[in-house]
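Supplementary Note 2. Why include the ligand at all?

Several targets in our set were suspected to adopt different conformations when bound, so apo predictions alone were not considered sufficient. For every target with a known small-molecule partner we therefore ran a joint prediction. The input for uridine-diphosphate-N-acetylglucosamine is given below.
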Amino acid sequence: MSLSIVIMAAGKGTRMKSARPKVLHKLAGRPMLSHVISTTSSLKAALEVVITGHGAEQVESSMKAAFADAPLKFVRQEPQLGTGHAVQQAVPVLPDEGITLILNGDTPLIEAATAQALVDACAGEKLALLTINLDDPTGYGRIVRDGWGEQVLAIVEHKDATETQRALKEVYTGMMAAPTRLLKGWLSRLNNNNAQGEYYLTDVVAMAREDGVGVVAAQPRDEVEVLGVNSPAQLADLERRFQAVQAGKLMEQGVRLADPARFDLRGTLQCGSDVDIDVNCVFEGSVTLGDGAQIGANCVIRNAVIGAGVVVHPFTHIDGDKDGVRVGDGSLIGPFARLRPGATLGREVHIGNFVEVKNSTMADGAKANHLAYLGDADVGERVNYGAGSITANYDGANKHRTVIGNDVHIGSNCVLIAPITLGAGATIGGGSTLSKDAPEGQLTVARAKQVSLSGWQRPQKIKR
Ligand code: UD1
Ligand code: MG
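The joint prediction is reproduced in token form.
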């Protein structure tokens, strides 16, 4: 049976107190709405409709960029007159047959298995609601059942509920699945005679009862799946819960996290065996850590492949952006190192404190241990790149490459003005500024000759 998905994402999110549309606020580095769309992609829906309203253009362009291949349709809801009114906007684009699954853009951690269970419970003929029992159900729509607690009779919104109804702990999570043809009929009968003057989607429950359609409930595996975000505090709370789940999975695989409460993964992290990660590290995009890799405290690592046995010392920033960063087996990086897009390091490369490497290759055993810059360079094997040396790779208009042969030794404080080639085995005297190639195997020095003046007098303080 064909599946259509409707994701409600038009609300203002007043309590976020932000100019950004609520569903674009990020959880684990991605907009909340992106989480929902990613999750539902495994459900193989024929159509996925996102209802936008507040900040619609921003929401639509952000999702189109993130999910270019998904069967996404955007339908605007202006003004926003309630959840029932939101789904009414999708009616013209929904097919008459099949099942419609309704989800929320601000409830990011819903799992595919739970959504599928809801669709299965609907089975093309019933109205299936996702419900959960909460110790504190304040604010939620309450599930009203018959005297035996079996049949669902209605959902009553908190603001419309009686004291007895408010004592009910079973609440509606905002997610449901219904036969599309029946849903369309119910939506056309909604009214806004209630405490909030809104068109409530939840009124379809009582209509299903009237029509003799079965109403069933399904529950999520975990409460975290149905937690919606309305405020910065709720967003931060959900972020920590999500990080705890991710940290738990990694530790189950054998990854040693010094403190799972001080760990953030905003993307995917693949780890070999015996990986140690110290506190306050942030992993973004796609990161791979080889066997025995050790990541020191306070590192930020994005889009990088880190080899086996690599030690990344504290406070190192590795940012692969789109080009990625590769660090070969046994390399030592940091503390306070910066690897930028296109840094490709071979085996046993050493990068020390305050060294920046961008769009450069460094062959096996090359070292840049202190205060240096390598941009647009190809560095040979076993090169020793002295403290304070830099490649001057940018002439103000274009970037140029620096090629450094194997076994070159570069003294401290050198400026290599690109394009330039240093032949294998060359030695460059400290303090040199080179604008011409240096030949193989020779010492090249380009600085003023040292002079000493005999008989020179140091100035004396004049006494008055
Ligand atoms: C809704 C349910 C309530 C349930 C709760 C779970 C109704 C009437 N009530 O209440 O039973 O317990 O969710 O969180 O459905 N939205 C639109 N357009 C609108 C209004 C809302 O797109 O005109 C979107 C919001 O962006 C949000 C979702 O619908 O993603 C839910 O809206 P919200 O106002 O938060 O509903 P609640 O009052 O929380
Ligand atoms: Mg809500």
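The pocket of uridine-diphosphate-N-acetylglucosamine (ligand 1) is lined by residues 8-11, 51, 53, 77, 80-83, 85-86, 104-106, 140-141, 155, 157, 171-174, 200-202, 228 (CB under 6 Å). The radius of gyration is 31 Å. Comparable summaries for the other entries are listed in the accompanying table.
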